[in-house]
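USER: Fancy drafting a protein?

ASSISTANT:
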Amino acid sequence: MLTRWTFDPAVLAFLALTLGGYLYVIGPLRTRYSLGEPPSRGRQACFVAGWAVLAVSVISPLDAIGRYYLFSAHTAQLLLLTTLAAPLLLFGIPEWVIWRLLPLRALRNATRGLLFPVFAALTFNVVLLFWHIGSFYEAALKNTGLHDLQNLSFLLAGLLTWWPLLTPLDRHTRMATPLQMLYLAAESLPLDIFGVAAIFSPAVFYPTYVHAPRVWGLSPMLDQQIAGALLAVPGNILDIVLMSVIFFAWIGHVEQAQRTRERAETEREMAEMEARVAAQESGATAPRE
C-alpha cells in the first residue's frame, strides 16, 4: 500500500484531457482559428510543471497513504494541489484562453472588482473546511468517487484563490498591488486556525487514522499535529515571501510611474521653452515699419 500508485480511470482520464486539451488549444486550434499569440515557453513549462505536480499528487503513493494511513500525507497532498499545482496551471494559461472562457464582459469585470477577492477567499476556505468536517471527510476516505470529487474541489478552490494574485486578465496588476498584500494576510486565516486546532486538540479528529496501521512510527496524535503544522506554518511562510514580492513590485511600479510623470513634465517644459525662444526669435527678426 505504501508504494502503490493509484490508477483510477476517472483520474487518468481527467489528467489526459487536461494536458491534451491544453496542448491542442495552444497548438492546432490556435493556429487554425488565429486565436492569439502562442504562449511563451516559460508559460508552457509552468503549465506542464503544474500538471506534473497534479499527477504526482493524485496517483502517487501519497494519495493512498493520505487516504488510508496518515492525515499528514493528506495535508501534504492538499498543499501540493492548492499552493503549487494550482498557481502553475493558472499562470500557464494564456490571456486569450481566459477571455474565451469568460465570454461575457460582466463576468470579466466581476473578476476585477473589489468584491471578487472576498468571494475567492471565502469560497476557498468554505470548500476546504467543508471537506474536513468529520462525516464528509470520512465519507471521502471510503468512497472513491467522493475522494476524487474532494481532490477536484481542492484544485478548483486553489485556482480560485490564486486568481486575485495572478490576475489572468490584467497582466499589469499581477502580484503588484497593496490590496493583494491584504488579501494574502486574510485569505488563509480560517485554514490556519484549523491547523492550530489540529495541533492542540486533545483528540484525533478522524477515526480512520486512529484505527489505521501505524506508519513510520507515527502515533495518530503526532500525525495530526504534523498535519496541523503543515497547514499553519508553510502557508504563512509562503504568504510572507509573496507579500515581499508584491511590495517590491508595487514600489517598482510607483517609481516607474513617477519617472514617467517627471519625464513628461520635463518634455512639456522643454517644449514650452522652445516655443518661447522661437517666438522671441520670430519677434526679433520681424521687419519694423
Observations:
- The two ends are 108 Å apart (CA to CA).
- The chain has a mean pLDDT of 89.
- The chain has 13 helices and no strands.
